[in-house]
Write a structure and sequence with these properties.
alpha/beta; homodimer; globular; 9 strands; DNA-binding; two-stranded antiparallel sheet; 44% helix; seven-stranded mixed beta sheet; 16% strand
Chain lengths: 216, 216
DNA sequence: TAGATTGTTAATCGATTAACAATC
DNA sequence: TAGATTGTTAATCGATTAACAATC
């Protein structure tokens, strides 16, 4: 097994999309998976899949492919998804609820340890099996739980205030679904999730025709 | 005003994120917006914003910036968001509901003309102000409405079947939130929306430290 | 052996970064 | 004029594509 090579934004994005088909392959009993078959079910160029897979450092068998389980593990390791990542989610509206119900979150290693919502009517209720807490003593609870990650599903208008509280309570990484750029100290990681971006790509393809930029 | 230059995947993704701050600037009465101030509130390198803005062909005033409204229009035109895009949404679960409630959809030009859901219990109900129809005669309704776009928020397991029906009914563009790669004819556009990709970037930054791939 | 696939190295292409002139 | 910013052209860097050897 070769050395893990380091990132490369488009590769990382693509890499995460290889897992669902690979897991399906393993479930259907395929011991080996080749980059050609994987490329085929992703509709990617096989070359690009081969290069991506090479980044993880996994080694395969020429003429056969990679052991499906080994490949899955290698990708998970590359993405840092092998160890559980304790997280909290703020904002139990429809987006928050959709994420909580998204079984794949667990596959990414995300373990939701607390769910908060500012709406007092929601406090104490259960969303997708998770108990919702109010935001009043969010800081204290977070200080106790020490989540590695906070998932922000709050309205854009309150995102900064919520982030400030969480940063004060020690959170150092955010997955931000609100449509604002957060002002944060340098040691805080923020991953903005702009769903509009995907639609923008589609829209450009639709309107300017001819040219076809790639999805990553 | 220069000529519109054509795409470039990372630019398109970033471009769509410039609109919210620009709209806020206009709302707060700023007649001009410069690429430096825009870069500032996006936390992007000013050079990258300048290059992106140049792609739209808009022209500014040296020493001052761009007329906020003109810049907004130029970006919308570049992304194909100036004309309304009639769309239907399939799958009124929590993710579908989140999208229907996302006011920004209208800003992107998306006009939801119909919402479908396979669950008979949902037929006839209203989600975020949209009446939900059953999927039984989806094909007929879609043939009448002729949407340019279908937004798929159905479970991965049913995505292909739903897409097949819609393609049969004439739909040629999909925004696919299901975690499967759709098999479609060559003249059909599919934009996969893999939210895992964003988390993968964050996760790699968290675990492999040091290196910091960019969000786009 | 023939076919398929991995693994590695080089070539090309495109995106980002840098430098600088022009002008409000 | 000085400061800020646009606009344009060149340099660098990184990602994708291509070519080919190695081997199951």
């Amino acid at each position: 097994m070769g050395r893990i090579k380091l990132p490369n934004t488009p590769s990382i994005r693509r890499m995460s999309t290889y897992l669902p088909p690979l897991i399906r392959m393993r479930e259907s009993g395929a011991e080996f998976a080749s980059t050609t078959t994987l490329a085929d079910c992703m509709k990617f160029d096989p070359l690009i899949v081969r290069k991506d897979v090479a980044l993880t450092g996994v080694s395969g068998q020429r003429g056969v492919g990679y052991r499906t389980s080994e490949l899955i593990d290698a990708i998970r390791r590359y993405l840092g998804w092998q160890a559980p990542c304790p997280a909290c989610l703020v904002g139990a509206g429809s987006l928050g609820s959709a994420l909580l119900g998204y079984e794949a979150l667990a596959e990414y290693g995300i373990r939701i340890r607390a769910v908060f919502d500012a709406d007092p009517a929601k406090t104490g209720t259960t969303v997708r099996g998770f108990r919702v807490s109010g935001t009043a003593n969010m800081a204290d609870e977070v200080r106790k739980l020490r989540p590695e990650l906070a998932i922000l599903c709050v309205p854009s208008g309150s995102a900064q205030a919520v982030a400030d509280v969480l940063i004060g309570a020690g959170v150092r990484a955010f997955w931000n679904f609100a449509n604002v750029t957060l002002k944060t100290p340098d040691d805080v990681l923020v991953q903005p999730e702009a769903i509009a971006g995907g639609f923008a790509l589609l829209s450009v393809k639709l309107h300017h025709g001819g040219c076809t930029p790639k999805p990553w």
